[in-house]
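Minutes, methods subgroup
Present: GH (chair), OT, SY

1. OT presented the first of two proteins processed in the latest run. Sequence and structure tokens recorded below as shown on screen.
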Amino acid sequence: MDIDKRALYNSLRMNWLIDPSIEVDEWQVENYRDMSMPLIFSKLREFGFDFNKESFCTVAEGYDTPEELTESLIDQEQVIPEVEDCVYLLAFELWRRFETDKPCLSVFCDELDHQIFLYDRNQAQDVEDIQDVLANLQVILDENADQGGDPIEVLHSVNKGCANDIETFLYDFITEQVDNHNFSYASELLDGFIDYVEDDKWFEFLRVRVLTHSDPESAAILVRQLAEEASVENDLQFNLELLSEMVQDGDLESFSDLVLQTSDLLESEEDFQDLLTVCLDYYSCQDQENEEQQLMAIIEQRSKNVITNPFNKEDLDLDKLFSIVKQ
């Protein structure tokens, strides 16, 4: 039995909580965490398992994970396939409560999903809960990497047991720390997780934002490095974010080069208007009124265009933008 079975349950329950119109069976979305022990035991008795706390713990002694235990129970009682998953969810919850001295990946991933869900819905009782689970995640990743595992594959392996995408959550969570000026903690998280993420340029971008407040010179060097690497990445949204970060202090040559590279990636009218706006912000911060006026005129002229329309790479306004940034 794979650890992703618990992740599938968590995913279904979280989606159902967001959209209760989703058609589900009651057992698929029940809150097993809040279920009383007598109720859990009574439900298991319906499937032929007569447990109490002591007898469950005695049986669990012979297994390392709730998945191994459940497979054995199902085989012994010849549980019909239609209720196997329900038995698993009940046994998993008992294991989570009683077998705390047997840390296993599926239980950790379940706790990570739980804390992410609470945090995203502003229901967390204490911010230290998510901080603790992220600290434990780093320990798990480091231990596996130290044993010779490829860092990116190590995170992928953990992510198989989670309903949430860990890399996406880490980026969003660290971004929030930066936005709230929690720079020390953001830097700690970046140092701890950047080796494990697949798309590390976004995390290096967050490092730029941290360094901007503590070491502007190092931030400027890293910005130039990211701008050079962006020429082969072909990631429009990243380029726009990086250009936005360069608005205040980016050197004109690097900014202009990245604008030209980004122009090849434009797909819609909205993309082009976003690029124009970033350029306007840049020249405004540089007090270059001539370029600022030219860009404002282009933006005003295009303000009534349908932003979802495809962008024509032969558009004359693109040539106007080129002439401005090449000056």
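2. SY then presented the second protein from the same run.
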Amino acid sequence: MKVGILGGGQLGRMLLQAAANYVVETYVLENDPHCPAAHLCTHFKKGDIRDYDTVYSFGKGLDAITIEIESVNIEALEKLASEGVQVYPSPAAIRIIKNKVTQKEFYRDNEIPTSEFVITENIAALEVHTHLYPAVHKIGEGGYDGKGVQILENQTDYSKGFDALAVLERKVKIKKEISMIVAMNRSGDMVIYPPAEMVVDPVLNLLDYQLSPAILPEKITWKAEAIAMKLVKKLNSPGLFAVELFIDEKDEVLVNETAPRVHNSGHHTIEANYCSQYDMLWRIIMDYPMGNTDPILPSAIVNIVGAEGFAGKAVYAGLEEVLKIDNVFVHLYGKNETKPGRKMGHVTILHKDYQDLTHKANKIKHLLRVIS
């Protein structure tokens, strides 16, 4: 098969690492010829994944195409799909999820529990909906990794909002934040990975560390699984989806956001589960049987991000010390340049004891720093 990937970041890199186990000819489209995925694919094409002509030209002649980021030209994918190229997920699913406004409206229209919200067309609208405060303002398109999101605690925070089409949603009092990865094949069969609990860095608004399987009451796990699978079924598209959910103080489960692709919250599956999320997506694309999502051992993930005060050629201080720790797996993304908060890699830790996982996660956070 000839399979294209739109985007050449770390997700594309890990997807290509899994592709090495299959007979597949891989193509990557990305503007940066030095991106993390560039040297791992069979064919690399430099170009803009948001440009219609570039994406259409790239996709012609391929058997299938997938994405590692949502900011792609959907019209070109629709044209390719109409001409017989298999697109994972479907352009219709990407269109719904790509924009926070249409994503939230999809949840409401399909009775998928989510936080109360309104659509705002400009910053002036923030003065009208005071009943939602404290609130979160999310720009419709262009946000990622905490960018395009503003916390508005009260009316005095109006000026922090976005003067563009956006979603204003009531801030949830979160007990736990979890992610569930759901895979669906062409026949509509679904499998789901155990939930992962995400602990977020309040300053960077990025994943600090993660534990999987999340320690949850059985009833909450069942509820989260049912919601995530209903959501993917309603999207009606083969592919792999990461459903991020909140568990509030009343143990209600609410969908926060969905990603139509392999996801940071599924990195641990490479070592910790019998079938990784990356291998699962290849199985779906190549129409092979679905893999086993069961965990081999509990796991933790620590993000490796650029340290504050450093920008330039990346140096991994403490790497040798981390590599001496048992059951630790280091993934560096091959990014030459570091800057504060930039994702440079991740570390997966395996252990049957959750206390040991948490201890090692905190130890690695302090040992491993990306400087310049």
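Chair's summary of item 2: The chain has ten helices and 22 strands.
Next meeting: continue with the remaining queue.
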